Amino acid sequence: MRFERLRIQGLRCLADVSIELGQGIHVFVGPNGAGKTSVLEATYLLSHGRSFRSGAREALVQRGRPAVSVYAELHGEGDHVHRLGLGRAGARWEARLDGTDVALGQLVQACAVVCFEPGSHALIAGAAEERRRFLDWGVFHVEHGFLGVWRRYQRALKQRNALLRTGSPGPDELYAPWERELGEAAAIIDAFRQRYLDQLGPQIAAAAAALLPELGPVTLRYRRGWTDAASLVEVLAQQRGRDLARGHTTAGAHRADWSLAFEQAPLREHLSRGQEKLTALGCLLAQAELHAQRRGEWPVVCLDDLASELDLAHQEAVVERLAAVGAQVLMTGTEMPRPLQARPRRMFHVEQGQIRPLL
């Protein structure tokens, strides 16, 4: 999978830029604040329907512009070129695929991008929500039934939470249908997630052994969001009183989490910030590797300011691995990273929201 053309309008400081891309490694260099990261952000938007940067969605739109839009031509499976479009002028994203209006999920299904950036350590050290997003993005791209059942679960969760917020216990007939729906959907989601993590585990172990050999073997742990001793339907019925007091559902697939434990660092609190970053990078590369095995093509890999995030030895290891598999790589930096100086690559200079090819 690779982008052949990317056009970005009104995204942060990028007013209107068009970039021709090819195979292999692409490097965007320029001063801080020039718009380099926004190029990676544009591709990530197409693949995830959200930014990897924190802050309000309104911050995506360039000041003084009415809307933001990203258009891409993507070379995908079977040498087919898809035309992807994503834009937002109001509160909701609008998506187009090959000239047709589609749901955002359908657009995201056609495009796979993984990104390592300065905030990626949150995958290890941050809240469970980050890890669920990582997990569910991977499941979404290999399990075609996941999106439908996930939507079922979210609808039922919204309805049960609305009942809980009334503060009234109400008859069992009000809650039971939504709790059954939650239980049925959660069981399917849980099976999808466990199967995916079983497949991802060996990939993570291999990546961790290459990036963090000093920490020893790694173990992947998964918590499904409710006790293993009972079905979710039973748990929801038992906890209804407590959930009423809190005003929301406290058990279920939306509370799932996973973690990594190294033999020499059994708790995530034992990792340094540098080790957290390397662990997160290993997880992202493992996910990309598994995607390639299951889908027959590597996702696009974005590396934001790699030189400031990793030491030289790890930079070289990452670049060598991605070059060996032929993945399309989009990388940023204030200058050309040293591991790329003797390698084939395309180079772009970014300054004040303008992008100019150099090589």
TrEMBL record:
Cellular location(s): Cytoplasm
Residue ranges annotated for the RecF/RecN/SMC N-terminal domain, each copy included: 4-334
Top-level taxon in the UniProt lineage: Bacteria
Keywords of this entry: ATP-binding, Cytoplasm, DNA damage, DNA repair, DNA replication, DNA-binding, Nucleotide-binding, SOS response
Pfam families for the chain: SMC_N
Keyword DNA repair: yes
Record PROSITE patterns: RECF_1, RECF_2
The keyword Protein biosynthesis appears for this protein: no
InterPro entries (UniProt xref): DNA-binding_RecF, DNA-binding_RecF_CS, P-loop_NTPase, RecF/RecN/SMC_N, RecF_2
Residues binding ATP, per UniProt: 30-37
Family named by the database record: Belongs to the RecF family.
Function (record text): The RecF protein is involved in DNA metabolism; it is required for DNA replication and normal SOS inducibility. RecF binds preferentially to single-stranded, linear DNA. It also seems to bind ATP.
UniProt cross-references to HAMAP family, sorted A to Z: RecF
Protein name: DNA replication and repair protein RecF
